[in-house]
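Technical note accompanying the year-one report. For the benefit of new consortium partners, we illustrate the data format agreed upon in the data management plan: each record pairs a sequence with a C-alpha cell string. No post-processing was applied to the example shown here.
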Amino acid sequence: MSGFIEWLEGLNKKDTKVRAVLRRSLAFDPGAFVPVYPYVEPFLKGENNFWRREMLYLVAGLWATHWREGGLGTPMTIGKACAAHRAATGSTSTERRFITLLDSDNDQLPHHLRQMVALLKDQPIDFETLLTGLVYWNDDRKRTQNAWAQDFYRNIQDDMGTESTIQEEKTA
C-alpha cells in the first residue's frame, strides 16, 4: 500500500485529467469504472485480494475529490479530521455521521466514506493511513474502527471547551 498516494500525485503531475477520471469513478462501485483502470491497475501489479483492490479504487477517487493545489496542511487521520471539523464548525451532527461511518458494513462503507470526505473538504486527510485502515476494515476485532474512534474522541473538545484529557491522565 505504501506509496499509492505518491503514485497518484505523480500521475497527476503528468496529466491533470487523472483527477477528473478518478473523481468520476466515485459514481460507480469501486473498481467498476473502466476508464480509471490505467491509473490504478499498474500500481496493483497482479494483486488478487478483492477487498484491497476495491479499497485502492475507492481511495483513489476520494483522494481526487479532496485534492487541492498546495494541499490543505499537515494530513491527519480521519478521526482527527472529523474532530477538527466538529471544532471548526460546531456541528453537532459530525459525531453522529462519524459513528455511522464506523458502523458501516462492506456495502455501506463506500457511500458513507464519500459523504464523510465531502464533509471534511476543508480538513487535510492522510489518505495513505486511510487506505491502510480500510484494507483492515473487516478485522474481527475492529481495530480500524477502534483506532479511528480513539483519534476522534481524544481530539474533540468537551462541552466546557477544553481538550479531552483521557490520554493525558493515562500517561500521568
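Partners are asked to follow this layout when depositing records. Residues 4-66 form a domain with the Peroxidase; domain 1 fold (CATH 1.10.520.40).
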